[in-house]
């Protein structure tokens, strides 16, 4: 049976339009680091590199490269961990300078993918696709632990409104953010979807406030 994350892992990826506390276990990802304005053409190259390697894994069984425990699955969604440069953090004007953004873009990989198999998939993808960023991909493991997440509908520029609701939820439930970084999981393709219909899972790490 094909593993479809929208069905089998709905709680992890498709939250409601109200905050929820959730525990995120360790997962493996293809990842690439970047900085600057995400509206640039170069940003799309990062995304294309991630998908090239991810589909290299997904289609490996049709090319004679799959592992013995391979299973059919739907490729996981694009994710991003976002921060801003230290210099920009010193400013208090409240205006986001997108040129100062620092990010890690990622696509989760199935449990059967080993480090060696990931390297082989990256190599195959780099030979198939003319994108030098493919060779910059890393295979990493992340465990976020306790997080608050919420579905954001609409423009990325309106995310502060959703984060405010999430932070109010934290205050009401004896929680606080443990990092000012946040994660975005893109449930719709922002290259093809109208801005007001974009769906994004917003998430940040939290910890219990000591009483």
TrEMBL record:
Q: Which residues form the GyrI-like small molecule binding domain?
A: 18-206
Q: Which domain of life is it from?
A: Bacteria
Q: Which residues form the signal peptide?
A: none
Q: Which Pfam families match?
A: GyrI-like
Whose protein is this, by species? Endozoicomonas montiporae
Q: Under what name is this protein listed?
A: GyrI-like small molecule binding domain-containing protein
């Amino acid at each position: 049976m094909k593993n479809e994350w929208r069905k089998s892992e709905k709680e992890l990826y498709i939250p409601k339009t109200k905050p929820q506390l959730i525990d995120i276990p360790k997962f493996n990802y293809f990842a690439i680091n970047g900085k600057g304005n995400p509206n640039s053409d170069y940003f799309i190259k990062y995304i294309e590199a991630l998908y090239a390697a991810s589909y290299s894994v997904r289609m490996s069984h049709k090319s004679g490269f799959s592992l013995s425990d391979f299973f059919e699955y739907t490729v996981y969604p694009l994710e991003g961990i976002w921060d801003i440069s230290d210099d920009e953090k010193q400013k208090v004007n409240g205006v986001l300078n997108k040129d100062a953004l620092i990010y890690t873009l990622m696509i989760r990989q199935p449990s059967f993918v080993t480090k060696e198999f990931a390297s082989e998939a990256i190599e195959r993808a780099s030979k198939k696709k003319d994108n030098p960023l493919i060779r910059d991909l890393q295979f990493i493991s992340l465990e976020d632990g306790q997080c608050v997440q919420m579905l954001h509908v609409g423009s990325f520029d309106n995310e502060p409104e959703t984060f405010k609701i999430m932070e109010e939820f934290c205050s009401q439930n004896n929680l606080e953010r443990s990092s000012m970084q946040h994660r975005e999981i893109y449930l719709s393709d922002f290259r093809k979807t109208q801005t007001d219909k974009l769906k994004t899972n917003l998430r940040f790490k939290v910890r219990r406030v000591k009483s």
